[in-house]
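Translate sequence into structure tokens.
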Amino acid sequence: MIGSAVAIHPACLGLYCGRTVLAVNGSVETYGDCGVCPRGQRTDENKICRECVGSPDRYDWLYLGFMAMLPLVLHWFFIEWYSGKKRLASPSFKKSSSALLQHITALFECSVAAIVTLLVSDPVGSLHIRSCKVKKLSDWYTMLYNPSPDYITTVHCTHEAVYPLYTIVFIYYAFCLVLMMLLRPLLVKKIACGLGKSDRFKSIYAALYFFPVLTVLQAVGGGLLYYAFPYIILVLSLVTLAVYMSASEVESFKDLLVRKKRLVVLVSHWLLHAYGIISISKLDKLEQDLPLLALVPAPALFYVLTAKYTEPSRILSEGGNGH
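Result follows.
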């Protein structure tokens, strides 16, 4: 039987070393020596390498969505940053439409990259992927758990225990970069009216810097991000919303309605708040978790209602009058 076949072999050392299945004869399996599991497999409780046949759960997809959003949000930020500077110097409709087209192109690039990444992942040609279940933080850092039986020789058992959550992000970033280099320079050259030659490509240059940073971030901190990303989303979205509303001098609901851009930024942050709340709750119990989404507008409402009491000029004037 399979159980007796497993008992014949001594257990492999280390957390992630396992024996590969060489042959199956009825109910009896023949195993190889202890070592690294092939890609797409991980060890079971008996230290046998088993193929990953599961599917990512809801939290796994939310994590992949977060990692997919990072380059898109950075694209939009730098497009708006560099085009916004020029619009302040010399506002024009052409420059606004140019920035909008670049935003749409960045969304198109990241969307196509995400679809292609899923299609080339196993099973190839399908938007569904098979995966191994993430059990603990060490699953992301198997290279740190290679055993040394005699404290001299190291048995290398490094493999992707969280297949494919670790490598699929790198594949996605590679496709994003390739699509950007193929599409964006041609678009920017055609539509970036009024921008100097050195300015029109600055958002692309910025991407050439932040993609390596994102790659290193995933390589080093992928496991930490997996467990912390819901809280990172909430904290960053709250901070950036407060900074934006302060910089835009929003002190009332009327100030929010003056410009469409402010409404777009507000709704975008609300979507991020909702994404963070859903990621934390995982919507395991809908009747308990869905009401939490009612908290999404709370930070913006709190800011608008209290902005007039914390306006610096008012505080200084009241202090000068002795109130």
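Note: The longest helix spans residues 202-247.
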